[in-house]
Amino acid sequence: MIRKMANIVKCRFPRGKCSCSGNVGYSRLSERLDEEEFEEEEEDYFINADRTEEITFYNENESAQSVVVEKNLCASDLCQLLAMKNRVSKSVHWSIVECWTDLGLERLLEDHEHVLAAYRDMRSFSSHTRFRYKFRKDYRKYEFFFHPQQFFPPNMLDVNSENINEQNGHTRTNQCQLQYMINEEGKCPVIFSFVWLRDNQKKTWSKHYMVLKEQKLFVSQRVQSIARFFRAAKEKTLDE
């Protein structure tokens, strides 16, 4: 009777949670699993940090708005977001302007450009030069396609007016200027830039690098290929 009571007192915990339960087991947690989970969380953290960044945009009155810009956010979408944050009417004329304050240079971001990628490109060249973004209206944003003379007037071309007068009797004619530029033999500077192109079979834009040299246009998707081209051309010039 005493032995039976002892067993009852010892097993007073419900559902076999006491030490006398013979069916209860124990297994050590895997340390490898913890390391893998930690590495995955750490990787997700850095991926998310790389996809977003907080950027400040200045208005015309020098007030500013800070926006967390995602990786694939285009300039046109950001303009609509900034218009809402500044409580102004939405318009296609709102623009993001890249400003180099020390150099006095400005560049209008195109609607399809990814703002975060452009910002990081600017930051890589800004070790000795200050830059910032401005949010303002630019009514000439789409006028280039309708009135290109406003941005590239004829007097910007260095054309021999005497030769045009002799041939056609008048000056500043677009056809004459074009013919003169084609026939005139001269050395043009090497021009390097990039352009965003989209294939008709795809929905995304891709960045291509271009070099205009000796009336030939070289295009590549890799900037390393353009760099090798420049080095090869330089070595060829030195050998000559």
From TrEMBL:
GO terms for biological process: generation of neurons; signal transduction. Residues 51-138 form the Ras-associating domain. Pfam families: RA_2. GO terms for cellular component: cell periphery. SUPFAM superfamilies: Ubiquitin-like. This is Ras-associating domain-containing protein. It comes from Callosobruchus maculatus.
